[in-house]
Amino acid sequence: MDAEKIKELLKLVSEQKLSPEDAAETIHNDGFTDLGFAKIDTERGQRTGMPEIVYGEGKTADQIIGIVEAMLGEQNNILVTRVDGKKAAAVRTKLPHLHYDTASEILLWERNPQMKTQGKIAIVTAGTSDLKVAEEAAITAEAFGNSVDRIYDVGVAGIHRLFARLEQIRAAQVVIVIAGMEGALASVVGGLVSTPIIAVPTSVGYGTAFNGLAALLTMLNSCATGITVVNIDNGFGAGYAASKINHLAEAAK
What we know:
Elements: H1 3-14, H2 20-27, E1 32-34, E2 39-41, H3 44-48, E3 54-55, H4 61-71, E4 77-81, H5 85-94, E5 99-101, E6 106-110, E7 120-125, H6 131-143, E8 147-151, H7 160-163, H8 166-170, E9 174-179, H9 185-190, E10 197-201, H10 213-220, E11 227-229, H11 235-251
Parallel strand pairs: 3-4, 7-8, 7-9, 9-10, 10-11
Antiparallel strand pairs: 1-2, 4-6, 5-6
Helix pairs in contact: 4-5, 6-11
Domain PurE: 119-251
InterPro entries: P2CMN_synthase_LarB, PurE_dom
GO molecular function: hydrolase activity
């Protein structure tokens, strides 16, 4: 553990937000904190450059509270994805510093906000119905210190809307394209920009959209090169990957 993290632990102890026993255990841990129901990976940031993120779906409010409290001594910004409003309200009664974004259903505690990158991530959606997935990607990327441009509702049904924002999209270091229905937007954007594209199929659509499977297959079979596809509705995965790409480009300047 580096000196800055030790200082942060000591600060938490002085503020009575962390017990001396818990601080000592954190300093002398084996790379994870065992809570019984979860093992917190305390060294993920050192290994991968990105801290552990909490997947909230399937966890109780008490479990999320326990996990976040265990993470307080280890990382500055804490992100909890896929948390519905009722569960978020229960978590915030104990941890009010966690901000809840209703659009993305993300709980975020920016204890030490990162300086934003000069290079931008453009998040492009086919429709307003893709907003939840788009905001999950956007909030994730911003939590990791990225500047984000939101370009929403520019799908192929009215492609002139896309062309009106094309200059802004082309200026980004990496583009996330989010679409349901037939998922055609990723291929269209792939033929218009030179930057890496991460495509996110969403479960938006009628019967034969098959809850996003049609869009997923379209994106995987795109004839436009340079498109990487993440799982259905996986805005978090897209935002995470885009952040890594954007920070690589930033470091190369």
